């Protein structure tokens, strides 16, 4: 990873971060537990906008306060979930410049001879993937996908979309017959994946938009239909940076900030929990990060339905943003640490902040647990988004890996449900360890002979 990037600088027409606040005052407010303003968060994220680069002494002061706040709010437990990622399709024409997960949907057409490394799983195949994982003891499936042009919510939605004069250009729609593999409808995918008592975590705001495109349906009613088909909670990705001038650069084809908020409110109005994310470390300034955090905090003030905040460190290597020379790197480790810490201090209404071994690796992921984070993601079994972007930390962590890592930093390993309401403290001495909260989980280790894919020995430091 790199440390040369200066978050105080930018090459775009964005205003240079500057505030009426001082770093010291912002730190004092964080120490008192006074609610922080966007200016305060900007100062803390930049370790002062008065000087270039990150000041190591000031950074340590912010991390220490955040770690203390974490201990006071959620204690010493480090949670994780026994889950599986099932991406349904990589076909997507949205064209986000930070993403190398997607493949152009044209390549998936029945008469195309374009080679591609992507996939589409019909509902039966998605269901089979979940069934297999249930046998291993998992209890959550996290499913996020490309916006396949043949996807529609249900048969009625197909009819509406077919009714347009030029569906491909007007509503990003082509009928399933045009493709080599039919992805089915969103409702069919939900029904297929919601089996055996698993918790289905799916349908990001961008996917919900796709599931209602070309109609005047409300997000709430779409999420209600999805929930009736088996959806339990929604991932708050597609957030990226919730400031439109940044979205105009990195994802001009995506919904705007207002629409993202409307989708999340719709999901919560339909009775679903949601998570929240921020993908940072590309073109945005520290001020944009602070503004993003305010969007999340305001939303949580109104709803209370956000279970966790998931900082997503931008993985740059294979992405258009890097290949086209728009950015030189992703965020530095210092920036990762400050984002976690300031999220903990600023989001006084969101209980849980996640550290990601997928994005940061084991060693730095553990460090982030000492900067304000209290959740360490999940077993996930397979991972495509970060891997395709050039991530190098593998796709799976076992319960034994988790127990070893979390006890190594003196914290308590806890298996949790997706909504954090059910928790099981794990006795480190009572190994080997496996999930017990799943409908078919009896404590048997999930994949006893497998080490973390691509990361070598999971117990060894990776940097
Ligand atoms: C790949 S999309 C899939 C779901 C859906 N297409 C959407 O955009 O919501 C899920 C999320 O992955 C994250 N992501 C994509 N590429 C990434 C990268 N190179 N580094 C870090 N996160 C990335 C983004 O936050 C994005 O919203
Ligand atoms: N699945 C990925 C996650 N996070 C999943 C978490 O386990 C999440 O907390 C859960 O799904 C809901 O509680 N994070 C990543 O960076 N990459 C993933 O693939
Ligand atoms: N972890 C996010 C979802 C997510 C999925 C895939 C990713 O690459 C990143 C994040 C959530 O639980 O809401
Ligand atoms: S982030 Fe999502 S919407 Fe954007 S290109 Fe990737 S898969 Fe498509």
From TrEMBL:
Ranges where the Radical SAM core domain occurs: 78-348
One of the record's GO molecular function terms: metal ion binding
The entry's keywords: 4Fe-4S, Iron, Iron-sulfur, Metal-binding, S-adenosyl-L-methionine
Keyword Lyase in record: no
Extent of Basic and acidic residues compositional bias: 414-433
Residue ranges of the region described as Disordered: 1-21, 414-463
Protein name per Swiss-Prot or TrEMBL: 7,8-didemethyl-8-hydroxy-5-deazariboflavin synthase subunit CofH
Source organism superkingdom: Archaea
Record flagged with keyword Iron: yes
């Amino acid at each position: 990873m790199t440390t040369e990037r200066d978050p105080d600088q930018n090459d775009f027409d964005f205003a240079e971060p500057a505030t009426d606040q001082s770093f010291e005052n912002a730190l004092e407010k964080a120490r008192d537990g006074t609610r922080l303003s966007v200016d305060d968060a900007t100062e803390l994220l930049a370790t002062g906008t008065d000087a270039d680069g990150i000041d190591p002494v000031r950074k340590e002061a912010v991390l220490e306060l955040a770690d203390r706040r974490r201990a006071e709010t959620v204690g010493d437990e480090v949670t994780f979930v026994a889950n599986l990622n099932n991406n349904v399709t990589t076909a997507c024409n949205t064209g986000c410049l930070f993403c190398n997960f997607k493949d152009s949907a044209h390549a998936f057409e029945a008469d195309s001879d374009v080679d591609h490394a992507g996939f589409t799983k019909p509902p039966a195949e998605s269901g089979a993937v979940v069934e297999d994982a249930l046998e291993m003891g998992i209890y959550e499936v996290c499913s996020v996908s490309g916006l396949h042009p043949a996807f529609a919510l249900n048969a009625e939605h197909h009819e509406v979309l077919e009714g347009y004069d030029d569906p491909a250009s007007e509503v990003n729609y082509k009928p399933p017959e045009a493709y080599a593999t039919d992805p089915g409808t969103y409702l069919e995918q939900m029904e297929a994946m919601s089996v055996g008592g698993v918790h289905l975590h799916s349908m990001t705001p961008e996917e919900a938009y796709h599931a209602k495109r070309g109609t005047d349906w409300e997000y709430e009613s779409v999420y209600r239909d999805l929930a009736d088909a088996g959806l339990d909670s929604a991932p708050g990705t597609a957030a990226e940076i919730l400031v439109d001038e940044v979205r105009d650069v990195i994802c001009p084809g995506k919904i705007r900030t207002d629409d993202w908020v409307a989708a999340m409110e719709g999901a919560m109005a339909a009775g679903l929990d949601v998570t929240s994310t921020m993908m940072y470390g590309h073109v945005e300034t520290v001020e944009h990060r602070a503004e993003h955090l305010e969007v999340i905090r305001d939303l949580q003030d109104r709803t209370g339905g956000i279970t966790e905040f998931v900082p997503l460190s931008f993985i740059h290597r294979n992405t258009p943003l890097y290949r086209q020379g728009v950015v030189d790197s992703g965020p530095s480790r210092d920036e990762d640490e400050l984002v976690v810490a300031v999220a903990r201090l600023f989001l006084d209404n969101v209980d849980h902040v996640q550290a990601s071994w997928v994005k940061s690796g084991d060693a730095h992921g553990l460090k982030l647990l000492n900067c304000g984070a209290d959740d360490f993601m999940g077993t996930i079994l397979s991972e495509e988004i970060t891997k395709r972007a050039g991530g190098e930390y593998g796709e799976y962590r076992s319960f034994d890996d988790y127990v070893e890592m979390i006890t190594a930093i003196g914290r308590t390993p806890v298996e949790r449900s997706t909504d954090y309401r059910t928790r099981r403290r794990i006795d480190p001495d009572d190994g080997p360890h496996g999930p017990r909260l799943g409908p078919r989980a009896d404590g048997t280790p999930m994949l006893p002979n497998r080490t973390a894919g691509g990361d070598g020995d999971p117990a060894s430091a990776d940097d």
